[in-house]
Write a structure and sequence with these properties.
Helices cover 32% and strands 15% of the residues. The strands form four sheets. It has a five-stranded mixed β-sheet with strand order 3-2-1-4-9, with helices on both faces. 38% of the residues are buried.
């Protein structure tokens, strides 16, 4: 088996460029990976000048204003995928991450060599039920993230309750083929290049697919999962997105990953995942320094295949 594997990393970022640079340096350490970066349009002018300039880093000039729970998240990912295709580089994998991720375990390059052809993403088979988030043409205000008992959050609950009683006040009338089942999960993935190529080609030929998700709730948690799980690559999917998250327990936090600190290092390392999020240098720079000081994409120190449970 060849020990050579090239990876295209897709980063969706909006803040903390110096922290992002530390993450990028982890990824391009051996020149075996390239990083494609999309910067949120709202912070583009502030962030762009501070990002690392390197032959292995491509910063998109086209920029989208990315909103939580909105199709703009998907659109930014599609821009990145298309940029990878336009590069005409011979990649093996394409890996989507956020600017608040870090590589937290050595051996990722060797892991990919051992897992050529596999698709890594979390997913749940939803089938035809519990599809309120997709079957409703959600008003924009109802698609936003709220951390309190905001009126729109209450409105969203009412819409959901009515939907489950058979009343859809805002039906999604966009076309959807009956043979397509729905799947959802965390938006972050690591996929073979041929899968990324399939996704881009499919979307270019099938406008109806993107249109269906335009006003869905959190479409980034459904869009790519559903497409890949209804594709010829379904049998290659491993139910693991290789990412450690710590979820909040309070009402205002339970649907969001929490910021990781130095106290979380043991839990992160024991998870045996290769990535973790989310980090913020303004909350705890020490945990960022800890991982970026010795974890690199091409470093396989202490890597043991037997430790991976897929």
């Amino acid at each position: 088996m060849s020990e050579t594997v090239r990876t295209a990393y897709l980063l969706q970022i909006h803040t903390n460029p110096q922290q992002v640079n530390m993450f990028i340096n982890q990824l391009i350490d051996e020149g075996a990976a390239d990083v494609f970066v999309h910067i949120d349009k709202r912070t583009y002018e502030q962030v762009y000048p501070q990002l690392i300039k390197n032959q292995h880093v491509k910063i998109l000039r086209e920029s989208i204003k990315c909103e939580w729970g909105d199709i703009s998240q998907v659109a930014a990912t599609i821009l990145l995928l298309k940029e990878v295709m336009r590069s005409h580089n011979n990649y093996d994998f394409v890996c989507l991450r956020s600017g608040q991720d870090l590589l937290v375990r050595n051996g990722f390059k060797k892991f990919l060599v051992e897992n050529r052809g596999n698709v890594f993403m979390n997913f749940k088979d939803i089938g035809k039920e519990n599809l309120c988030v997709l079957k409703v043409n959600w008003p924009k205000g109802a698609r936003k993230r709220y951390t309190s008992a905001h009126p729109y959050r209450i409105f969203r609950r009412i819409i959901q309750e009515l939907y489950h009683r058979g009343i859809n006040l805002y039906p999604n009338t966009n076309y959807w083929p009956k043979e397509f089942n729905f799947y959802c999960g965390s938006q972050w993935f690591t996929i073979p290049f041929e899968v990324a190529s399939f996704v881009v080609e499919f979307l270019e030929k099938n406008d109806w697919y993107f249109n269906f998700f335009t006003n869905a709730y959190c479409p980034d948690e459904w869009f790519f999962h559903t497409l890949i799980m209804n594709s010829p690559f379904k049998s290659n999917v491993v139910k693991n997105n290789l990412l450690y998250l710590k979820w909040g327990e309070k009402f205002s936090e339970r649907n969001s990953p929490q910021y990781l600190t130095y106290e979380d290092i043991t839990s992160i390392e024991q998870s045996l995942q290769f990535f973790a999020r989310k980090f913020d240098k303004n909350i705890d720079p020490n945990v960022i320094d800890y991982f970026t000081s010795y974890i690199k994409y091409g470093n396989d120190t202490n890597y043991n295949t037997q430790d991976i449970h897929l």
